[in-house]
Amino acid sequence: MARSSLETAEVEQRLSRLSAVDEHMADRYPGATHRRQPVHTCYVPAGKVDADTVRRWSREALAALDEHAAQPRDLAGILGLAPQDAAAVHPRVRAKLLDAPIEDLRIDFEDGYGRPDDEVEDADAERTAGVVAEWFRQGTAPDNVGLRVKSFDDPQLRSRSVRTLDIFLTELVRARGELPGGLRLTFPKVVDVSQIEVFVEILQLLEQRLDLDEGALSFEIQVETTQSIVDSEGRMALPRFLRAGRGRVSGLHFGTYDYTASCGLTAVHQHLAHRACDFARHVMQVSAAGTGVFLSDGSTNVLPVGEQVHHGWKMHYGLARRSLEHGFFQGWDMHPAQLVTRYAAVFTAFRESAPAEAKRLSAYVFATGGAVLDEPATARALAASFVRAMDNGATDSAEVYEMTGLSESKVRELGRL
């Protein structure tokens, strides 16, 4: 028997203290969620939401594609795509705009909506809930849909914010008989953890009054103030926000223009690629890592309309690609024509990386070796890339099998390891 110097009991006595660490890590960092993350969130002012909204965005996006990039070579010329990528991406973009143009829709009762009379907002809250209920009844609802309430930073609007949420949810549950899956709530302009705590208590009250399961109402936090990055005492704020959410926080969404304005940037420098935004996004990443909370990048106000469709597309495409490179797989879209470049960016990014990623994933699974020795965590990330691509329409199971030699079920299993 090999000799050792330490007694088993004295080692175990010390190691046992780490059990508390294990419990803490399992509670705070449960790992990636099995929920599918949408590639974008489309914001539509509540007053403009009606039964035709999703179809209208589809029609307008397709019209922009047909007018300005009817052929793959047109899209390649505008966005600088390789011909083979444009040939593969263009028909997939068209199919996406036809079949599922919006993956996540947010009915906006905040900045994009304004401050109408109470009677008007009451009516819009009730009416849009009915629209959403009808979408679900017809099977035409986006995979994710919900509303953005007014923020709690203005004392005069807090009660209004809660009343709108109350009316919307009350009517939606009445019309549906239940809370539909894929419902999303967005809580903007958070400046203090107490706002999160109060919002959670409001959601608990609504669950009780509407006879919903505890925890049925989750929400996204919009990161659009400096105080949501560093609080008044110099601490990182987001970890405290997530704890205060008590497991209800499903996402952190970056707000480009409110955040850059709060940093004191002038209008010309308020854009998504500014280094001030990079800092905020890095804080979001390290705060949410391992928690299962989705990250979403913000928007650009340079729209592809009128005489600047090509310019707007180039700007949006470049920013979407930049977000993907930084590990943000979701962003905001504010205009139907941006759907063209949203999907073009997501699909092209996958096309460019897929051959090398497929080779590495195959080498990992089949132990064939190669120039790169990947760890299990990297293999999981490689597989997750293919899972996202199958889910969002960038590829399909047959193509993935051709590239990797792996079935869809195997790829999905690897992506969850």
Number of strands: 8
**Low-pLDDT runs:** none
Task: Determine the N-to-C terminus distance.
Answer: 37 Å
Order of helices and strands: HHEHHHEHEHEHEHEHHEHEHHHH
| CATH topology title of the largest domain | TIM Barrel
- Oligomer state of the chains in this structure: single chain
CATH architecture of the largest domain: Alpha-Beta Barrel
Radius of gyration, whole Å:
23 Å
Number of domains: 2
Mean pLDDT: 95
Major pleated sheet: 8 strands, parallel
Estimate the helix proportion, in percent: 40-55%
Relevant CATH superfamily of the largest domain: Phosphoenolpyruvate-binding domains
* Widest beta sheet: strand line-up: 7-6-5-4-3-2-1-8
Category by helix and strand content: alpha/beta
Shape: globular
Task: Determine the strand fraction and express it as a percent band.
Answer: 5-15%
Per DSSP, the total helix count is 16
Cofactor: Mg(2+)
Protein name: Citrate lyase beta subunit
GO molecular function, one term: magnesium ion binding
InterPro entries: DUF6986, Pyrv/PenolPyrv_kinase-like_dom, Pyrv_kinase-like_dom_sf
